[in-house]
Design goal:
Largest sheet: 2 strands, antiparallel
Order of helices and strands: EEEEHHH
CATH class of the largest domain: Alpha Beta
CATH architecture of the largest domain: 2-Layer Sandwich
Number of domains: 2
Radius of gyration: 29 Å
CATH topology of the largest domain: Wheat Germ Agglutinin (Isolectin 2), domain 1
Structural class: alpha+beta
Helix content: 25-40%
Length: 111
């Protein structure tokens, strides 16, 4: 059995049905939130015209590389201090390998 799937494009602003290739997705952002809206050619043009004075008075912002938060990795010296503290305070920690987070948290709370 054959199946035929039809895609219908709708203008998000006025609900009109768009011919294939007659519309576009417009992306914009305001107050830190990004939006996209599917519009027919006329509504896309109207949106751009409406925003022209604001765009003209504004300044573009370059997107910087997103960086991860600061690293919380411990140095070898700090790990040795944590192991020493753990041994003196009744925490079972091996001489090598990962120190359990609960022990690290207890060390930080005590120091």
């Amino acid at each position: 059995m054959a199946q035929k799937v039809t895609t219908t494009y709708i203008d998000d602003l006025d609900g009109s049905e768009l011919a294939a290739g007659a519309g576009e997705t417009v992306r914009f952002a305001i107050d830190g939130t990004e939006y996209e809206i599917d519009l027919g050619s006329d509504n896309a043009k109207n949106l751009r015209e409406s925003l022209k004075p604001f765009i003209g008075a504004g300044r573009p912002v370059k997107r910087g590389r997103r960086t991860s938060g600061t690293s919380t990795r411990n140095s070898a010296e700090n790990l040795a201090a944590i192991r020493e503290w753990a041994a003196k305070n009744g925490h079972a920690v091996s001489s090598r390998g990962r120190i359990p987070q609960a022990v690290q948290d207890a060390y930080r709370a005590a120091n």
